[in-house]
UniProtKB/TrEMBL annotation:
This is Methyltransferase domain-containing protein. InterPro entries: Methyltranfer_dom (IPR025714), METTL25 (IPR052220). Signal peptide: none annotated. Residues 162-454 form the Methyltransferase domain. It comes from Trichoglossum hirsutum. It holds the Pfam family Methyltransf_32. PANTHER family: CGI-41 METHYLTRANSFERASE, METHYLTRANSFERASE DOMAIN-CONTAINING PROTEIN.
Amino acid sequence: MTPLSPLPYSGYFSDSETYVESLLDFAASSDIFQILCGGVHILDFFTREPDLYASVLPRSWREWFQEWDVEDVLDLLMREDLDQFATLPQDIAAEGQQNQELSLTEVSWRGGRSPPTSLLRYIRDIRKHLLRRDFQIPATSGPECSMQGNLTRKIAVGMKPKKIHEVLNFSRYVDKLASEISRDAPSEITHLVDFGSGQNYLGRALASHPYHRHIVAVESKRHNIEGAKSMDVTARLAEKEKLMRHKREYRKYRSRKDLSDSGGEALDGCSTTLGDFPEQPDAKAATGAMARSSFREAEIIHLNHEGKGSIQYIEHMIDGGDLSPVAQQIEGISRVADHRNTAGPAEGRTLVGCDGLNSSDNDQGLEKHLSPGGDVCRDEPLDDPKAVNGGSRTIPHQQCHADIPATPSPPQSLMIISLHSCGNLVHHALRSLILTPSVTAVAVVGCCYNLMTERLGPPTYKLPTLRPRPNPRVVATSAACDPAGFPMSERLSTYSHKHGQGIRLNITARMMAVQAPQNWTPADSADFFTRHFFRALLQRIFLDRGVVSAPSAPGDIVGGSPANPDAMGTEPIIIGSLRKACYSSFPSYVRGAVAKLSANDPVRGPVIASLMSGLTDDDIAAYHARYLPRKRDLSVVWSLMAFSAGVVEAIIVLDRWLFLKEQQHVVKDAWVETVFDYRQSPRNFVVVGIKERKAAALAL
């Protein structure tokens, strides 16, 4: 179960502690790394004097870059074997010697001059501190091999190839992990709790054949839950609600309703029988009202049926590691008796979920079923087409009676899972292992690092380039001091270095960490570079036209701050995506961006439109011609930023692992490994934590 190494570090390091110390030392001491990861922003490329390219990169690097295409630079950064170059002496990196270069004229590269030694050293440092992303699908044998090879068509409904790859591999991984934990733990894993389940692709796969797991899908957005339940129907895991009317009684109801509407005898008060049809547009509303009252207890019943899976949807906003509100709902379900009526539902009658009721013309059987003296429990495999969606969760069902004595259910043992949960949601999942007694293990894959908050206060900037941009979002996030933010571990929070104490990653660095440069094709690269060039050049026009403000000090950065906060507010100017046609030329881009800002922002839109008025296509073309020779410089810097940001992701993943390792009184084991192919899904690291057996036993 546990991999040979708790972290997938490179073979350069002998153990995890050596890797951790080297990574933190590099991140805190390398000025060029700090500048490329958080110290510069692409919007500032054409708005600074002196030029950003010249002020950030050493002269020897710039001179060498001028001789090569950007694709060659990308190959050197990520793919070229560096062993072909001479070994670099250790003392060249000493302070004050950064610009000294060794003569490597005896070594050529691709028929040209060899890269500068300091550039090669930087590339080596980045590469050796990246976490390895190798992934191999675990070999299976026996009947499981054919069962787990692919998702069935009905389970894969709505998934793109990337999502299919993720769900297929992560569901296999989670099932195997849960089974191995159950063998060693005091109690087997009873439920898999999916944090931020979204459309519940993962839960749907794990609840179905061949896994048959019991899933608790926790999601804060109601429309996502409704969408997931709709997909359950499409996947034939749940039956679509059917409205069945007693035609004769319904005709009577309609005739009386028409009479009432025309001024005749008023309709009597509502009755509790289906045939009376209370004053509602149709029988569905009456049916729903009875179902909500008669099935009130059924809404909290979720019985474990051996060998079959189930899904329970819970609408809940996760804002901390204490999962008591979620666990209590699951506990309330598990405490209800698991009594099954072997006779099954009466002939001619079908039971359904909380929001509706299917019936036949057998009104006597229906009224008997809904009588005050009886109760309804539902316990049916999810794979059965009769299973339906409840009001806020999908709950299997079957008839039972209240006069049967209750039997306590086994204690719960929860495993938190998450497939690409954004920002702090991963932090909450990891803390739930510590704060929630019934949580036995966690296995989470994160993404969207830019949505994490920051735990530490603003740092003391030694380098002018690292000063915070006058961007309210950047300033606010760094000053928030959110205890749930990054870094989680005390190791990173208290790490001492030349700039102060604590490892800090601002939002610019974290946004770059979600890049996947190893997956870039030449066409992808050209597209990225064109888009970034257009946006950076538009920022130059914004500066010249007074839309954004000029730097207030020589070392400050523009970064999108509005020039007139009183008239335009303090939020940075964000354009977002535009129509594909807008990227056909720079004038089209400028017109499209200004039109979008003018139309979508009722406060700032008129101000921007006024400031940009009078700008002709010839003026825009002149800007493009003037700055086009520097597009290549921007592309080189962006490539270096994306390449270096792999270390930022390594720091974030390391911090989460260290947090679990620091909880020695609770956590038995913790590790990080890859669960996806990087080419299919770049965010492919899963962080796993398993609770101590004693702690788990006490919780049970």
